[in-house]
Structures are given as C-alpha cells and as structure tokens.
C-alpha cells in the first residue's frame, strides 16, 4: 500500500499499465476536506466528472503529458507575475506547490484548475512490500522557506524627503516601493562606473601637468603636480598612494635638490612610506651632504624622539649637541639657535631632567644676558630638605602598597630636587650634580646681542610662565603644561563664576615643579620665578624693561585670582590680610626699578587691574588711574599740541590706560561715566578724572559728534601710517604684549561708537573695513594687526551681552553673526585664547552646536577648554536637578570621553599632528578613563586604561608625566613602566629596591 491514500493503486495492476480504478475507489476525491476553495457541495458531481476526464489524460504518452504540464506551469507563472504587478496579496509557498510534490498536475489543481490527475504507474515504482519510494527529483525539495532579502518588514513612510516635508508629484508611488538593497546596489554600480571615468580624468590632468613641466620647468609646477596627486588618490590603499607621491617628489628633487618646500614634502613623505630606522638612515645621508641644513637636523631629531623604539634620552641629546655645534660653526641665524636651544631644554624638562635644563638656562643667561644669573646662586639647591625627609618618613610608615609608595616618593622628590646641586661630594644621587661639561655642548653665545630679550622670554616659557599672548610658533609637543590656560584670568570680561572650575582643572594636570598651590614645594619655585623676573627687569632698559615689569604685574594678578578661586566659596575680593603682602611686593618692585618704568602708564594700568582684582572698583583702584593721568598731564613734555605729536608712544600709553579704565567701568555698569571718560580723552584731557561721583554728567550730542570726529581723524592718520609701502613687515617681540597706536585708536573709536549709537551695526562695519585693508595673510605685520582687530570685534559683543545682562534687556544682536566672527578668528588664529573663551563659555550655545563650531579648529587649548566647559555644565546640571541619581553615568562624562578619543586617534598621516603628539591631552584622556565610577557592567576600566596608556607612550615616549600617570591609572603595569623608564633612561629619583630597604629600616 502507499503511504498516501491519493497514490493508492490497484493491487494486481501491472507496472506499466494505466490504472483503471472503480468510481468507488475515487470517492475520497469528493471529501469535504479536499474540495478546492471556491467550489460548493452542489458542484461535487462536476468535480467527479472532471476527475474522470483527468483519468483519461493518463493514457497520453509521458512526453505529451510533461509538455502539457510545463505549459500549464508557465501559464500559472505568468498569472502570478500579473498578480504581483497589480499589487495583490502575495501567496505563500505552500499555496504555490501541492503537498504531493511529485505530481505537477496536483500543483496545477491547487492554482484553481479543475483537472485533477492521479499519477500513473509509470511514475512510481512498486516494491515487494506494496509501497513505493519517490525517486524523481523535484526542485521544491531543495527550497527552504525563509525570509527573502532584505529580512525586514516593509514600512510605508509618510515622509520620503527631508524630515517634515511630504513628497509630492506623480512619481512618489514608485519611490515608495524601492527597496534599500536595490538602491544601494544601483549606487555602487554607478560609482564603479564613475570611478573609472574619474581615474581617466585624473590621468589626463596629470599628463597635462607633466607636459606643462616639460614645456616650462619650475618649482611651482612640480608643487602643483604633487598637490594634485595628494588631493586625487587613485588606489584604495593609502600606502600605494603615498609611494606614488614620494616617487614624484624624488623626481622633482633631482631637478631642484636645494629647494626647501620640496625638502619638507620629501621629509613628510618618507615617514609615511618607510619604517623609522630607514627614515633615520635617509636623513643621515642627506645631512652628510649638507651639515648646515636646519630642516634636516630638525627632522632627524623629531623622528628619533617620536619613535618608541628609537627614543633613548642620551641618544637624542647627542643629536641636539651635534646639530647645535654644526649650525653654530656654519654661523646660522640667532633665531635658529634659540629655537634649537628651546627645543632641547623642553625635551629635558619633559624627560624629567630638570637639573640639566636649569643648568643649561644658567649658562645661557649668564653668557648672553647678565652674569648675575650664573653667579648669584639662583639655579642651585642644597643637598637635603628637612621637609622632604619628614614627608618621606610619613609615606614609608603609612603601610601603603609598594607601587603607591614609589609613586608618592617619586613625585615628592621631583617637587624638591629640580635644581642642580653645586656642593662638593654627593653620594645619594649623582644625577643632581650638573657640571659645566654636561651643558657646554648645548649652549653657545649669541651673535647679535639684541636677541637676549628673546632668550629671556624663552627661559620664562621653560619655567611655565603664563604668557598672555602667543608671540612665536610652538612645536606640537611644547604645550604640555596646564599653566598655559592661566592667562584666562587676565580677561576683564570673563565669567568669574568659572574661575573655580578653571583652577581645579589646571591644578589636576599640573606637574611639579610648578608655582601652582597644588604642588608641594611650590613656594620655592614661585620665588625662583619672581627672582628671575626681577633680575631681567633690572637688566633690560626702556620698552623691554617695561614689558617685563608688565608681565610681572600680570603674574601677580594671576596669583591673586588663583587665591580667590581656591577659596571655598569663591570670593569676589581678596581679604585684606592677603592683599597687604601683594601690595608690599609690587611697591617694592616699582620702587627699585628704572625711573622710566616709574612713569610708564602701561605699568600703572596693570597695577590698577591688580588692585581691581583684589578690592574691586574701590577708591584705591580709582586713585591709581587718576594719579597716573594727573602725572601725565602735569608733564609738559608729554602734552601734545600738534598732529604729529598725537601718535607718540606716550600718547598711545594714555589711550591704553583710559581704555582699561573704561572696560572696568562697563563691568560695573557705569555706562555714562565710561562715555564721559572717552569724550574727555578725545576733547579735554585735562578733565580726565576717575574719582567716584554721586552722579555722572550726561554728555550732549554735539560734543559726542565732535569726539567721534576726533577719534575718526586719529584712526585715519594711524591707518595711513601703517599702510605705507615702507612700513615694517616684522613686529618686534615686545610689541606682541602691548597694543600699538593704530589698534588703540581703532578700539577707542569703535567702543565709543557702539556706546553712543547703542548698537553694534556701525562699529562692526568700521571693523570690517579695517580687516579688509589688512588682508595679506602672508604678511606677518598684517597677521599681527588682524589678530588684535578680531579681539576688539569680539569684545564689542561681550560689551553688548554685559549691558543686556545688567539691564535685563532682551538680546539684540544675532548669535549667528557672533559665531561667524568666531569662526573667522579661529580659522586664522586657532589658538587664540580670547576667541576660544568667548565661544566655549557662552551659555546660549548647546553642546552639539559648540562642537560644530570648534570641530574645524581643534587645538590643544580648544580641547582643554571644551573639557572645562563640559565639567562646569555637568556640575550645573547636578545642582539644578533634584532627582539626579548619583549612580547614573553623566552624559557630559561620555561627551568628554568621545571628544578626547576622537582627537587622539592616530593614523599614518598624522604622525606629526599637534593633537596626537600632545602629552597633556593623553594624560587628560587617561585620567578621564580611570575616573568612571558608574561604568556599565562588563566594561573593564583598568583594561581600557592599559590600552590607552600604551597608545599614549607610543605617541609621546619621552614624557615622564605619562609614565607617572600610568602608574596611578594602570597600577598592574608598574613593573613594565619602570622597565621602560630605565630603558629610555628617563629621570628616576627613587627605585623600589631602595624604598624597600628604607621601609624595613
């Protein structure tokens, strides 16, 4: 018998004869469960007749039967395709094929036809056990019912275009039925076709450039071809593209071997193509041919220093020594020698060799500036410090683990032992002794003694002095100290509620030795910086001495802000007990300085700002400004009577003093008094007084117009003088810290115009005109002027914002215009602290928009300020939300991690990136990763810190602060870190074996 009743045949039938079953045997065909859909019970007889007709069809030959079946199947498929086009309901595969898959006639009956056929004897094989086995292959058995690609439901979206815009037109229905994978495949085919066309265009353009080079060969044409290849790669592999670029650069250098621009491209290209050892060999061969090439020496030192396998401190120092000797014998410029000295000393400081750095500074300053720096014992320290010994005993007796003991003792000794010991025998630590032979190879006399002032500024920068302005170009690895953000305290229009967050951030990342109060022994280092500044002020004369004295007063003002920010809660004024020693130090400095500095209005302007930070706009602060103006007016030689005398330096200093006082008046909301002061500056200087009065006098409109005309005439004269063809192209270094005549004149004019008109439209138009006049970015003088013009532009918006805040008025200027100005400023000067502070600490900008504004201009300072702003916003969010759950992770914490992780990604093309080679950002990222108390389950903080630590050491292998932070954030790697520090020969003050002996004793 058959397994299925429908296939049951006569028991005695022959194998090849057709079946002649009786009607009773086919009665099961009329069963209720077998009636096809759409056929009623009344049509059962018709169904029986049709089944009989199907029996007659079995008599046909197999070929005809298969042909008929194939035709019917094709017809059914055509019907299905028509149904699909008409968007009818799609039937399942079970409806397409019958359960008796070996019979195609049954499948045809399922599609709606009435002819039912029973398989003949020729289609089955009857065995001795009276059942058959299906041996004919059927494709349906090889098909598995599954979801068709794509395996996702089809959604009918209401919006097919931009969010919020509904589609219109006759083709909207066609777009709706397009599947994602079909559109993607079509785009890939189109891109593959266009890529071939694009490569053909690239090759054609390259051939055209090659022909132009053969016709008229020049460096510019070679550079154009190189830039074109860099902008239009043809390989998917970047390595192949870099090899192609390098081959072209080598061809160009065969024709122009001494061109500096091609040499820089060559040095960048070999780093991307060759390994580090091969790069060093190539550069050494080039140096052997030309030992006086500064670019080659810098490239050799940079590649040696930035490679993890090659960076060993004595080897790098030998390269610095060889390069200094070769360049000095070739009588290179003093700027080159100063830059090389500063890079070498910075490397020593970052590697922990502070004794060697201060020994180099002592010999350089004593040789080129003043002998007092080398003979007064300024850069020397005693052998033992009693405070250090007491702290070490406390740490050794604390019972802490050995890794924590080593870390604390290392930090403690580094805070005290930063100056060389000049005594006799020293058995404890021989590295503290720095002889003349140790530093003589890095220090050479200056050819031009006028560069002594630049050398003094370089020495202050090595001591982490916070300069208010960046006056020179900095290397990627130079800005590695958090004290570079302290000049934000010097901005008058800053939000003083952020001082606490800024100081906490600087204190967190500060590394000893430093004058920040978070470091132990900061008092001795602070005294060293003050003493060094005092010697420099006494040595230099004229404008340079006044500039150094101004820097000293700014440094004291920063320390006052630090004192207020470190107090809890943050204070607006300083206590009298703490303000008294500050006044005593400043008065002593002014008393013993040059007589020219005692009458300098720039110095008294800074002194007045210092008093304002201590006591606010008090009578003492007003008295300083009033006395300064009276002294100026009483001096007959300083009285200006002619147009030529108006542009003298003394007159410019008076403008600077009055503008400083006007800013303080606007901060206090005294708008009328500020207008009166500017009016007297233009018309009646004898009536300039800043004593506090009960009620300020209102200035008539006619007098305001006269004052505006005076300011406008002064600006026109200054602009004509700066626009002359014989005007100076380079700016002296001391002028970077002071505003020149034209900038002060423009500032007075536009501020007075904004105050008189009560809007910014006219003032901004004037500034746009000045920016258009000085638009040559290749001119260093124009860049110097444009940076200060942009700062005045931003100050106008801050004055308007401050006025609205004091009067509770609605905003009037457009935020988009303000962001456009910030974008233009950062596009030309991405490290400008004034522009960065104005946009980062703006309360009206959400985080997403803030990231969008600064995303194109990310520098180390911009990233640091973004982190400070995120922390401050997080603290404000926690204070505002009463239902905040402390166990939940803060969104700003993740934003900080995402920001630091994105800017520190390394690739083959950013080996010299300013962000990637900045150790301060790596240290911050490491600490932020370690400080995750609410990390998600399954997330290993220590493992992530370990990976980040080794990535940071790969980027900056010479920076000792990274190793110390790694000992804190990844304590499981302490032994490996110690081995690395010993291998790189970094400065190590203590070793665990020594501390173990001291602890046991």
Explain what the structure shows.
Among the domains are: about 485-615, no CATH class; about 615-635 and about 645-725 and about 735-795, no CATH class; about 810-885, no CATH class. The protein is built from 42 helices and no strands. Helix 6 packs antiparallel against helix 7. It comes from Anopheles minimus.
Structure keywords:
nucleus; NRDE-2; Protein NRDE2 homolog; mainly alpha; 1001 residues
Short description:
With 1001 residues, the chain is mostly helical.
Low-confidence stretches: 7-22, 37-128, 166-178, 640-647, 907-912
Percent helix, as a range, is 55-70%
Sheet with most strands: none
Instruction: Evaluate the radius of gyration.
Output: 42 Å
Q: Give the CA-based shape.
A: globular
What's the β-strand tally?
0
Number of helices: 42
Strand percentage? under 5%
Give the termini distance in whole angstroms: 101 Å
Family: Belongs to the NRDE2 family.
Protein name: Protein NRDE2 homolog
Keywords: Nucleus
Subcellular location: Nucleus
